[in-house]
Amino acid sequence: MPKLRKPQDGFNLAFLDVMACGLGAVILIFILVDFKAFSPDPTEEKNKLEQELAASENEKQKLQKSIDEINDKIAQESARQDEAEEARANSTDYQSKLLQDQATLLAVLADLENQKAAISKEVEKSANIQMQGTGEQNYITGMKIEGKQIGLLIDKSASMMGDDLLDILGKLALSDGEKVSTRKWLRTKRIAQWMIARLPKDSKVTVVAFSETAKVLGNNTVSSARVKSSMQAIVKDLGSVVPDGGTNLQIGLRTLFSANPKITDVYLVTDGLPTLGDGLPLKCKSFISEQKSISSDCRRELFAATITKAPQGVHYNTILLPLEGDPYAPSSYWDWSRITSGTFLSPAKEWP
Prior knowledge:
By secondary structure, the chain is an alpha/beta fold. The chain folds into two domains: 42-115; 132-345, 3-Layer(aba) Sandwich (Rossmann fold), CATH 3.40.50.410. It has nine helices and seven strands. The protein has helices spanning 9-38, 42-118, 165-171, 176-179, 183-197, 228-239, 249-259, 296-309, 329-339; strands at residues 149-155, 204-210, 214-217, 223-224, 265-270, 315-320, 344-345. It is rod-shaped and about 170 Å long.
């Protein structure tokens, strides 16, 4: 019987197994090597994240700086708006006060006109001097010349030749003969004569004409209203006065009370607030060149300083011939007359 051949499959399978395992091992090695090759380096990743974080922080700081700048601008603009609003409010209040003062003056003037229309037209026969004209133009209601010791202050500054700045400047170049013949100055002299004509017979009077300087008019510093020649001498001196210079009310008052310290009633004829005198605020002075004009606010402050130096216990009365460009004059003289129990009048242009 023939011998059977032993199968050789066992060897073949074992060989294949070995080869497969080897191949698998090689593949596994390649996989591990490739994974490690493409694995990120933790140090590089950290550096990259830190750079991105630093960039973000810089961007944040820039944004915060921009926000702070915007907030500052908003705060500054808000502050400017608040200041502007406050300034508008103050301006509105001040305008309201001026309108109220103006309304008060207009009401007073209307009342005076009504009283004037109702008074008698009889010409006073006991006048100290003769006045031309008859009827209502020879009288004015509310201004009664009274007192035992009377002082008349007549403003003879250059502004007493005109009603506005251009008009006044145009008259500065006139001759003295032409200046004393200007319409406003002629009216001023008539007002002074009107007061002299109505002085009480038993009164004593001192008349002073003032501008930058002051002068007592008449033969005596204190004259008796009963003596007709004394009154005529005052009128004559007034006729030779030439209007010029600025308005120094302080020197006018000093001259008046130096001539007669017993004066109890002062009657002032002027057209505006003073422009010269002691007590002018520092902000109103010019240290570079001589100042040719003075603002309305500075004139008002100078007037306040002037009346504080004026003798007390005296009745101060004012006849104002308003000058354009001096808005505080009516209310200022009104207050001064009111607090001293005097009278304030701003008569119509046709009077007296």
